[in-house]
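Tutorial, part two.
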Amino acid sequence: MAYTANDFKKGQPRWCPGCGDHFFLASLHKAMAEIGVNPWDTAVISGIGCSSRLPHYMATYGMNTIHGRAAAIATGAKVANPDLTVWQVSGDGDGLAIGGNHFIHANRRNINLNMILLNNRIYGLTKGQYSPTSPRGFISKSSPYGTVEDPFRPAELCFGARGHFFARAVATDASGTVDILKAAYNHKGAAVCEILQNCVIFNNGTHDAVYSKEGRAENAIYLKHGEKMLFGANNEYGIVQEGFGVKAVKLGEDTNAAGKAYTEADVLIHDAKCEDNTLQLKLAEMEWPVALGVIRDVDAPTYDDCVSAQIEEVKASKKYHNFAELLETNDIWEVK
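Running the prediction step on this input gives:
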């Protein structure tokens, strides 16, 4: 059955005008329509926060759970009903602070979830406290003199938990967001999508370098598996290897250690399928250009498949297969 974005819409979104949640919601509706899974075979599960209102605006099954527990509830839903397509939506505070433990273990177990992290580097719903992704020195209502701690890098946290899929998009980039959402759905296992977005009230401008189309042309690179890592308005820049790391260079102008100008032949080819995540993590952590698209996409056994297989294996070895047979397995007597 062919769907349109309208088939997944419900209600009137209640977010601040200009909030990145509006942009992401529209992209999610479009991605779901293009994926084509029935709304009644889909569940959207969230925690608490501005972004966690999202299930209210989906014509699917949905659950607005408690703070930080979206991944735990989503895990239960997926394991109990393996045929259900589950989208988990969390903010950077909800997903990485109180929900951080669930985040890393969902990745470690490789549960077949589409895990959306809407990262605006602030607690918006509770009026502007700094979050686990706020940069050092960030001034907020809970850090009036600036934070004195370093932030989480979501990609680093995902990779450190042995995550097999990580992608990134900007909320205002509809096509880029739809692309990674579809890739997350097609990946079997825990698929983390980091969405960069501004909070127009408490942290406006935090992702301004890539929030506009012009900004992305100058400050972002769209990674595509199997293709050269070129970027810039005319592909005049490229990503090359430097020692154990990577760096961006301007082709024909910047030179290597031997004094020769870099050419397109020196530019690396993106390999999202490589099991060794060393280069993928280097790309994800670049400050310039910001890496967008699918950064890592590696196949591995999923927790829910393994649990289902184990259940069938144990059932096959038992003498009983239902409760009535269980009661008749041991000694039986009748009291009159």
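The CA atoms of residues 78 and 84 lie 6 Å apart. In part three we will examine how such features are distributed along the chain.
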